[in-house]
Specification:
- The chain has 26 helices and 17 strands.
- The strands form four sheets. The protein has a six-stranded antiparallel β-sheet. The chain has a six-stranded mixed β-sheet with strand order 10-14-15-3-16-17, with helices on both faces.
- The mean pLDDT is about 75.
Length: about 1000
C-alpha cells in the first residue's frame, strides 16, 4: 500500500482546504511530520484512517470530525489517493453535516456520503466503483487484509502503546496481540469447550439425579434390606454403587418372598380345617333348632283345631249356596231393570200436557205422529222468513248508499270549486323554490374558497405572532452563543499561554518529558495566579456548544415558522381576518337561506301532483254517485212489493209464535216428548213381566239346594274376598300340619335332638382367628411379591439409565479433559497456558524474531528480544518477553530497559509486528509507515542508529513518516510536512522532498 495524495477540508483543526502530497514526501524515503503541540499532526493520520475505514482510531472516536474553524457553508471532506494491490484508488468521505438551509433560516442535516473511484490506465480517466459505505468498507478491508485496529497498529505505529507493551504483564500483552492477530476464534473454541463441558456435566448430573432418585425409591421399597452411601450426582462410582446395592436388595426380597409363601400355605390349611368344623357345628345347631320349632308349631295347631272344624263347615254351606247364585243374580237384575223403567216413565209423563197424563202408549204414539206432520209443513215458511230478512238488509243498504252518495256529491262540489285557486298557489311555490336552488348553487361555489381563505388568514395571524417571538429568541440565542464562544476562546488562549506549567506539573525526576523526551528537568515552568486548567476550558467549551445548539434549534424553528407564514399569506392575501370573517359569515347566511328556500321544491312538486290526482278522483266519484242515485229508485220499489207478500204468508205459519223457527222448535219438542213417553210406558210393562218370572225360578232353585227359603241361600253365599280368605286358612292349616309331621319324623333331625346342644360361638371364633391369620399371611406374601416386582422394575430402569448415561459420561470426560487443557487448568498442561495464549505465544515468538533483526542494529548488537513461556509467580505462562544483553550475557525482563532503550526496543518491536501482521494479512505490501513520537529520549549516537534502520527501509522501496517535534530531527530529515496552528485553524506546509 502506497499513499499518493491526501486532501482535507474542514476536518479537525483544519478550517480550510489542505493538501498533502505523499508521493513527493515518499520519494525521499524518510520524512518528518512536525509542528507545535495541538497543531494537528495526529489529525493528518486520523484523516488517512477515516478515508480508509470511515472512522478515526479508537482513542479519538466519539467526537465531532468537523472543524470549529470552518465556514458554515463549507462541508467536511477527506479524499485519499493510494495504490494497493496494484490498483490506483481514490477514496472520498464526508461525515454527516448540519448545514444552513438554502431557503429561509435554520439548518438541515445531510447524511454521510462516500465515493470509491479507480483509475483506468487504458482510458486515462477515473471510473466510479461504489457509493455504498458498506461496500467500500468491505472492499478496502479485503484489499488491505487488515481491520482498522490492525491498520492503526501496523501502519500508524504508536510508540507509546509498544512501550507499554514491553512493560505490560501477560494479560495486557494478550489483549493487544489478540486484537492484532484476531485470535478471537481460539478464545471461542475455549468458550465453546467450556460450554460443552458444562452442558455435558449438567446432562450427567441430571441423569445421576434420576438414577439416585430411583435408588431412593428402591430403598423405600426394600425397607431395611438396602443401604446407600452418601453420594451426590456427578460423583465417580455412583452408578456401580447403586447397581450393587440394588442387586443385594433384590436377593433379600426374594428370600423374604419364599418365607411368606410358605407361611401363607400353612395358614390356608388351618383355615380350611376351621371352616369344616364350623360347618358341622352350624348344621347340628340348625337341626336342633328345626326340631324345637316343629314341636312348638304342633302345639299351636292343637290349640286352633275347633276353629278349623268351623271353617270347614262354613265352606261346605257356601258350596251348596253356589247352585242358587245364578237365580239370585237373575232376580236382582230383573228388579233393578223394572225399577229403572218405572222411574223413566214417571219422569216423562210429568212433562206431558194435562190432556195426555193418563193416555196409553198407543195414544201417545198417535199424538207424536200428528206433531211431526205439522213440523214438515213449516219448511216453506222458513225459506220465506230468510228471504224477508235479506230484503230488509238490502233495503237498509240502499238507504246507507244514498246517504253516502249525497255526502260524496256535496264534498266534490265544494272541493272542485276551490281547485283553480289552490293550483295557482302551488305553481307560485314551485317557481320560488327553483329560484332559491339556483342561488344556493351559485353561493356554494363561493363558500369553500371563502372558508379556506378565512382559515389561512387565521393561521397567518398565528404564524405572524410566532415569527416575532421566534425572531426575538433567535437574536437572544445568537448573542448568548457569541458571548460563550468569545469566553471559551479567551480561556483557551490563556490556557495555551500557560500550558508549559500544566505539562511541568506532571514531570518526575528520571521520567522522560512528554514534549522533548528529556529525563532531566532543571527549570520546570510554574503556574501563575489565575491559571486556566483543562477542566475550566472544557466547561467553557461545553457552555458554548450548548448555547450554539440552542441557537441552531431556535434558527431552525424560526425558519419553519417563516415558511408556514409565507404559505398562509400566499393563500389568505392581505385582507384583515375580521373582514374575511364578516364576509364569510354573510355568505354562509345567504347560503343557508337559499338552501332552506330550495328545500321546498320537491315537496311543492309532490303536493301539486297529489292535488291533480285528487281532482281527477273527485270528478270520477261525482259522476259515479249520480249514476247510482238514479238506479236505486227502481230497485227500492221492487223490494217493497215483495216484502209485503212475504209478511202476510209468515203471519199464518207462525201461529202466534215470534218466528217460524220458534214454532218449529215447539213442534219438535212435542213430537220428541210424545215418542219418548210412549217408549218408556212399553218398557215398564215388559220389565214387570220379567221380574215375575225371575221370582218363580229363584224359589225352585233354593228348594232343590236344601234351603228353606231363598233368603237362607243368599245368607250362605260368600263373596270372592271372603271365599278366598276362608280357603287360604284351610290350605294353611293343612300345609302346616304336613310340615310339622315331616319335621318330627326326619331321622337327622331326631338324631340331632338327642345330642348335646352345639357350641356355635366357639366354632365361629376359631374360624375367625384362622381367617385373620390367613389374611395376614396373604398380605405379607403380597407385600413381598410387590416389593420384588417394584425392585425388579426400578432395577431395570436404573440399568437402562446406566447404559444410557455411559456415552454421555464418556463424552463428558472427553470434553472436560479438552476444556481444562485449553483453559490451562489441567494437570497435563504443565505451564497452565490457555489455547489462545498458546497461539499468541507463537505469534509473539515470530514478532520477537522479526524485531531482533532491527533491535540488534539499533543497539549496536547488544540487545536481542526473545520469547519466554516461563510462569510469572502463580500466574499462567506463554506471553513473556525478555531481552538478552550481549555485554553481560544475561537474560532480563524488558521492563528493566532505560527510557531510550525502551524507545528503540519498542520501535523494533513495532516494525517487527508490522512485518508479521502484513504476512498474516496475506502479504499485502505496506509501502508507507508512520511512527508517532518517542525520539526525544535518544542520544545522538542511538538516534543515528535508529534513523539508519528506518532509512534502510527504503531498500525495499518503503517510505517512513516520523511524527515528532524534536528539533534535532528537523536538521537530520530534509523532507518535512509542517503543521502550523492559528486562531483561524491549522494549515500544512510541505518542505524538501524529491523534485
Amino acid at each position: 500500500m502506497r499513499l499518493h495524495r491526501l486532501d482535507i477540508t474542514a476536518f479537525g483543526p483544519f478550517g480550510g482546504a489542505q493538501q498533502v502530497d505523499f508521493g513527493e514526501l515518499s520519494a525521499a524515503g524518510l520524512f518528518l511530520l512536525h509542528g507545535p503541540t495541538g497543531a494537528g499532526k495526529t489529525s493528518v493520520l486520523d484523516a488517512v484512517c477515516y478515508a480508509l475505514y470511515g472512522s478515526v482510531p479508537g482513542a479519538r472516536q466519539g467526537g465531532s470530525l468537523r472543524s470549529d474553524h470552518a465556514a458554515p457553508g463549507t462541508r467536511t471532506e477527506v479524499t485519499l489517493e493510494l495504490t494497493v494491490a496494484g490498483r490506483r484508488l481514490e477514496l472520498t468521505r464526508q461525515p454527516p453535516w448540519e448545514r444552513p438551509k438554502k431557503r429561509g433560516a435554520g439548518t438541515t442535516l445531510d447524511k454521510a456520503q462516500s465515493w470509491l473511484r479507480e483509475y483506468d490506465v487504458a482510458a486515462g480517466s477515473w471510473k466510479d466503483l461504489s457509493r455504498s459505505h458498506q461496500e467500500i468498507g468491505e472492499e478496502i478491508t479485503q484489499l488491505l487484509g487488515m481491520s482498522r485496529e490492525q491498520f492503526c497498529q501496523v501502519v500508524l505505529l504508536p510508540q507509546g502503546d509498544f512501550a507499554r507493551f514491553l512493560r505490560a504483564d501477560a494479560e495486557a500483552r494478550g489483549k493487544l496481540l489478540g486484537r492484532l492477530f484476531d485470535t478471537h476464534r481460539f478464545a471461542e473454541v475455549e468458550k465453546r469447550l467450556a460450554d460443552r463441558r458444562r452442558a455435558a456435566e449438567a446432562e450427567v448430573r441430571e441423569g445421576d439425579a434420576e438414577l439416585l432418585a430411583d435408588a431412593h425409591r428402591m430403598q423405600q421399597a426394600a425397607g431395611d434390606a438396602m443401604e446407600l452411601p452418601g453420594l451426590t450426582p456427578g460423583e465417580p462410582g455412583l452408578a456401580e454403587t447403586i447397581m450393587g446395592a440394588a442387586a443385594i436388595a433384590r436377593c433379600t426380597a426374594r428370600e423374604l418372598l419364599t418365607i411368606a409363601h410358605c407361611a401363607r400355605a400353612a395358614a390356608e390349611s388351618a383355615h380350611r380345617a376351621a371352616d369344616d368344623a364350623l360347618a358341622d357345628v352350624r348344621e347340628a345347631a340348625r337341626l336342633q333348632q328345626r326340631f324345637a320349632e316343629a314341636r312348638e308349631r304342633a302345639g299351636r295347631l292343637e290349640e286352633r283345631a275347633d276353629t278349623h272344624r268351623e271353617d270347614r263347615a262354613r265352606m261346605e254351606r257356601a258350596r251348596k249356596a253356589e247352585a242358587v247364585a245364578p237365580a239370585l243374580e237373575l232376580r236382582e237384575a230383573a228388579e233393578t231393570e223394572h225399577r229403572r223403567a218405572a222411574d223413566t216413565e214417571t219422569h216423562a209423563r210429568a212433562l206431558l200436557p194435562d190432556t195426555f197424563v193418563d193416555a196409553g202408549a198407543g195414544g201417545l204414539a198417535a199424538a207424536a205422529r200428528r206433531a211431526a206432520e205439522e213440523l214438515g209443513g213449516l219448511e216453506s215458511a222458513r225459506r220465506a222468513e230468510q228471504r224477508l230478512a235479506q230484503l230488509v238488509a238490502e233495503r237498509d243498504g240502499l238507504d246507507r248508499q244514498e246517504r253516502a252518495d249525497e255526502e260524496v256529491l256535496h264534498d266534490a262540489e265544494n272541493w272542485l270549486g276551490e281547485w283553480e285557486a289552490a293550483r295557482a298557489g302551488l305553481q307560485i311555490r314551485i317557481e320560488s323554490a327553483q329560484e332559491a336552488a339556483t342561488r344556493a348553487e351559485q353561493l356554494a361555489v363561493q363558500r369553500e374558497p371563502a372558508q379556506n381563505r378565512l382559515r389561512a388568514a387565521r393561521r397567518r395571524d398565528t404564524f405572524a405572532r410566532d415569527t416575532d417571538e421566534a425572531q426575538t429568541q433567535v437574536l437572544a440565542s445568537r448573542e448568548r452563543a457569541t458571548e460563550a464562544r468569545a469566553h471559551w476562546l479567551d480561556l483557551k488562549e490563556q490556557r495555551l499561554n500557560g500550558i508549559a506549567a500544566e505539562l511541568a506539573a506532571n514531570l518526575s525526576d528520571g521520567e522522560p518529558c512528554a514534549v522533548c523526551g528529556a529525563t532531566e528537568h532543571p527549570a520546570p515552568a510554574r503556574k501563575i495566579a489565575g491559571h486556566i486548567d483543562r477542566e475550566t476550558e472544557e466547561r467553557a467549551l461545553s457552555a458554548y456548544q450548548r448555547a450554539d445548539e440552542r441557537r441552531t434549534e431556535e434558527e431552525r424553528r424560526l425558519g419553519l415558522v417563516r415558511e408556514a407564514l409565507a404559505a398562509a399569506t400566499a393563500e389568505a392575501g392581505d385582507t384583515p381576518t375580521e373582514l374575511l370573517a364578516e364576509q364569510t359569515e354573510e355568505l354562509e347566511h345567504r347560503y343557508e337561506e337559499a338552501r332552506r328556500g330550495a328545500s321546498g321544491l320537491h315537496s311543492a312538486h309532490e303536493e301539486l301532483r297529489r292535488a291533480e290526482q285528487e281532482r281527477e278522483r273527485r270528478s270520477a266519484a261525482q259522476q259515479e254517485a249520480t249514476v247510482r242515485t238514479a238506479s236505486r229508485v227502481a230497485r227500492r220499489d221492487t223490494l217493497d212489493r215483495e216484502r209485503a207478500a212475504l209478511e202476510e204468508e209468515l203471519a199464518q205459519a207462525r201461529a202466534g209464535a215470534e218466528s217460524v223457527a220458534v214454532r218449529a222448535a215447539q213442534l219438535e219438542r212435542q213430537a220428541a216428548l210424545f215418542t219418548e213417553t210412549a217408549e218408556s210406558a212399553r218398557t215398564a210393562e215388559d220389565t214387570a213381566q220379567r221380574l215375575k218370572d225371575a221370582d218363580a225360578r229363584l224359589a225352585d232353585a233354593a228348594y232343590r239346594a236344601g234351603f228353606d227359603t231363598p233368603g237362607a241361600a243368599a245368607d250362605a253365599l260368600l263373596d270372592d274376598a271372603a271365599h278366598h280368605e276362608l280357603q287360604r286358612r284351610l290350605d294353611a292349616w293343612q300345609s302346616e300340619e304336613a310340615a310339622v309331621r315331616a319335621a318330627l319324623t326326619e331321622p337327622d333331625t331326631v338324631a340331632a335332638s338327642q345330642r348335646p346342644p352345639a357350641d356355635l360361638v366357639g366354632a365361629e371364633q376359631a374360624a375367625s382367628a384362622a381367617a385373620r391369620r390367613l389374611r395376614e399371611a396373604a398380605s405379607a406374601r403380597d407385600a413381598a411379591a410387590s416389593r420384588c416386582t417394584e425392585l425388579d422394575r426400578l432395577s431395570a430402569r436404573s440399568a437402562t439409565a446406566v447404559r444410557r448415561l455411559a456415552p454421555l459420561r464418556a463424552a463428558h470426560d472427553r470434553v472436560a479433559r479438552l476444556a481444562t487443557l485449553t483453559a490451562g487448568t489441567s494437570a497435563d498442561n504443565e505451564r497452565r497456558m490457555r489455547l489462545e495464549s498458546y497461539v499468541l505465544a507463537a505469534r509473539l515468538e515470530q514478532v520477537a524474531a522479526a524485531a531482533t533483526a532491527r533491535l540488534r542494529r539499533m543497539s549496536s548488537g547488544r540487545y536481542t528480544l526473545v520469547h519466554s513461556d516461563d510462569r510469572a509467580g502463580r500466574g499462567r505462562s506463554g506471553l513473556g518477553l525478555h531481552v538478552v544483553d550481549a555485554w553481560t550475557g544475561r537474560e532480563r525482563d524488558t521492563a528493566t530497559l532505560s527510557g531510550g532503550e525502551t524507545f528503540f526496543a519498542s520501535l523494533a518491536l513495532a516494525l517487527g509486528l508490522a512485518d508479521v501482521v502484513t504476512d498474516e494479512a496475506g502479504g499485502v505490501r505496506l509501502d508507507t509507515l508512520f511512527i508517532d513520537e518517542g525520539f526525544g529520549s535518544l542520544d545522538d549516537q542511538t538516534l543515528d542508529e535508529v534513523l539508519d534502520v528506518l532509512d534502510s527501509l527504503r531498500e525495499r522501496d518503503r517510505s517512513v513518516g516520523i511524527v515528532s517535534h524534536v528539533p534535532d530531527l528537523r536538521r537530520r530529515i530534509h523532507a518535512q510536512l509542517e503543521v502550523v496552528k492559528g486562531r483561524s485553524g491549522s494549515v500544512v506546509r510541505q518542505l524538501g522532498g524529491a523534485h
